[in-house]
Write a structure and sequence with these properties.
The structure is a single chain. This protein has no helices and eleven strands. It is mainly beta. The strands form two sheets. Strands 2, 4, 5, 6, 9, 10 and 11 form a seven-stranded mixed beta sheet that branches. Strand 5 and strand 6 form a beta hairpin.
């Protein structure tokens, strides 16, 4: 079955950086569209960024210029490099594959 396992979350100060990872199994990863979403307390889950199998990327306006999505097809892993973090980036971050499968999420907290 499809498994997506996120890691790399944690507590970081405003202006800091984190890199999230999502290891995938059970899918044809190199052809899969991979995406990151996030859900803040009391808010709906929102799309953050996506990357196609060919490496084309798209970003939500609030994170454009600060976050970077990338993938390593040899490792079946997608990454989210998050820089210049703000308190409003605090959320559970989820990996999604092919608009269908979800990971369990990893908590990111931006606070001083």
């Amino acid at each position: 079955q499809v498994q997506l396992v996120e890691s790399g979350g944690g507590l970081v100060q405003p202006g800091g950086s984190l890199r999230l990872s999502c290891a995938a199994s059970g899918i044809a990863f190199s052809r899969a569209i991979m995406a990151w979403y996030r859900q803040a307390p009391g808010k709906e889950r929102e799309w953050v960024a996506q990357i196609t199998g060919g490496g084309a990327t798209k970003y939500a306006v609030p994170v454009k210029g600060r976050f970077a999505i990338s993938r390593d097809n040899a490792k079946n892993t997608v990454y989210l490099q998050m820089n210049s973090l703000k308190p409003e980036d605090t959320a559970v971050y989820y990996c999604r594959a092919q608009y269908t499968y979800w990971g369990q999420g990893t908590q990111v907290t931006v606070s001083s």
